[in-house]
């Protein structure tokens, strides 16, 4: 069922080491006519091959099992096995070949168990196609297969582990967003200014998404780590810009207006561009090397961070001052409270 899926390579069943085994199928009709019980067939053949414990021997304070088993020559040919005598209910004997069919079949030499259930691993690699598309098609194929009673498939491996990690990272990301918004409010002392500062977060995330799509990549653990890093960088730029505005108002006594907004933006322009250029310059070699062994995680992380840093820097310098001016005009900032002693 999985062999026709595009992108699947090296498909094989793992751990299925087969070895020749004698299979004895009792013909119930023939056994009934000759008064042979199926249990007698199983007991006789088991005695020949595995042995039958018939007693114990006590010697020098040790216990030894007394085992009866067939002679080695009885197991060397199918003819000898077909001539094996099976005792009937009337104390007579019948040949094994008259009441059962003997044949050699290949059976697994090792049966793996997990949680008391046997399992077989069907292993494959993915090449030339993204994991998610292949996994979705594999799940569709598995749903079309009718498994025997108490049998079921489980999709495991790197993809399922990655999906589990991604779900946890998304939860961590949502918690980070809530924490960032609350920290911005505590830092600025205003819900409106916190909301303005928080608007840079989705812009930075959108820049990371655009860079990821432009590079032809897919969502992975490395890209999620990049998104979390971008959230912190965007929040830092916003805090420095808005706190710079508040510092200018408090320390220089400059009245709020266009002049103050432009002055604050100019003061933050050089540090912001320098830090953004340093981050992009450090990450560009990771992107230039491509998806080589050893860079499976940091490569997507670098792509997302570059897109997020560029989008966040542009938004912070050219859009954020205008948004701050609008909010500051409609809701003047409350001065910090202090204690004065006469």
What would you note in describing this structure?
The structure is a single chain. This protein is of the alpha+beta class and 342 residues long. Helix content is 56%, strand content 17%. It is built from twelve helices and ten strands. The strands form five sheets. It has a two-stranded antiparallel sheet. A hairpin with a 2-residue loop joins strand 8 (112-114) and strand 9. Helix 6 (158-188) packs antiparallel against helix 7 and helix 10 runs antiparallel to helix 11 (298-318). The longest helix is centred in the C-terminal third of the chain and has 32 residues, at 221-252. The protein is rod-shaped. 21% of the residues are buried.
List keywords for this structure.
342 residues, alpha+beta, two-stranded antiparallel sheet, 10 strands, disordered C terminus
Basic shape: rod-shaped
Q: Could you give the order of strands across the largest sheet? A: 1-10
**Number of helices, counting only DSSP H or I runs of 4 residues or more:** 12
Strand content: 15-25%
Distance between the termini: 87 Å
- Unreliable runs, pLDDT <50, ≥5 residues? 336-342
Structural class: alpha+beta
Q: How many strands in all?
A: 10
**Topology as H/E string?**
EEHHEEHEEHEEEEHHHHHHHH
Percent helix range: 55-70%
Cα Rg: 38 Å
**Main pleated sheet:** 2 strands, antiparallel
Précis, in short:
The protein has 342 residues and is α+β, with helices and mostly antiparallel strands. It has helices at residues 28-33, 38-49, 78-82, 96-99, 131-144, 158-188, 191-198, 200-214, 221-252, 258-289, 298-318, 320-330; strands at 8-14, 18-26, 52-59, 62-68, 85-87, 93-95, 100-108, 112-114, 117-119, 121-126. The strands form five sheets. Strands 1-10 form a two-stranded antiparallel sheet. It has a two-stranded antiparallel ribbon with strand order 2-7.
């Amino acid at each position: 069922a999985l062999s026709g899926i595009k992108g699947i390579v090296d498909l094989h069943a793992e751990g299925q080491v087969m070895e020749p085994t004698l299979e004895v199928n009792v013909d119930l009709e023939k056994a009934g006519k000759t008064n042979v019980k199926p249990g007698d067939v199983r007991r006789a053949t088991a005695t020949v091959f595995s042995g039958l414990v018939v007693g114990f021997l006590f010697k020098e304070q040790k216990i030894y099992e007394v085992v009866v088993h067939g002679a080695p020559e009885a197991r060397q040919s199918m003819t000898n096995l077909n001539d094996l005598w099976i005792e009937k209910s009337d104390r007579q004997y019948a040949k094994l070949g008259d009441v059962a069919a003997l044949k050699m079949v290949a059976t697994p030499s090792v049966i793996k168990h997990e949680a008391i259930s046997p399992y077989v691993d069907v292993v494959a690699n993915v090449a030339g196609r993204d994991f998610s598309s292949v996994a979705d098609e594999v799940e569709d194929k598995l749903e079309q297969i009718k498994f025997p009673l108490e049998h079921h498939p489980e999709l495991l491996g790197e993809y399922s582990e990655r999906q589990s990690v991604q779900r946890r990272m998304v939860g961590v990301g949502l918690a980070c967003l809530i924490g960032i918004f609350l920290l911005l409010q505590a830092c600025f002392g205003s819900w409106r200014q916190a909301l303005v500062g928080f608007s840079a977060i989705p812009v930075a995330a959108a820049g990371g998404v655009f860079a990821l799509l432009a590079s032809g990549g897919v969502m992975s653990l490395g890209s999620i780590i990049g998104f979390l890093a971008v959230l912190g960088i965007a929040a830092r730029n916003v805090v420095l810009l808005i706190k710079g505005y508040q510092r200018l108002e408090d320390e220089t006594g400059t009245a709020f207006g266009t002049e103050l907004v432009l002055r604050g933006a100019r003061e933050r322009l050089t540090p912001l561009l320098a830090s953004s250029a340093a981050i992009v310059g450090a990450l560009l070699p990771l992107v230039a090397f491509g998806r080589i062994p050893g860079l499976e995680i940091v490569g997507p992380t670098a792509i997302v961070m570059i897109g997020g840093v560029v989008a966040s820097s542009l938004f912070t310098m050219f859009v954020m001052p205008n948004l701050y001016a609008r909010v500051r005009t409609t809701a003047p900032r409350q001065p910090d409270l202090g204690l004065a002693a006469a």
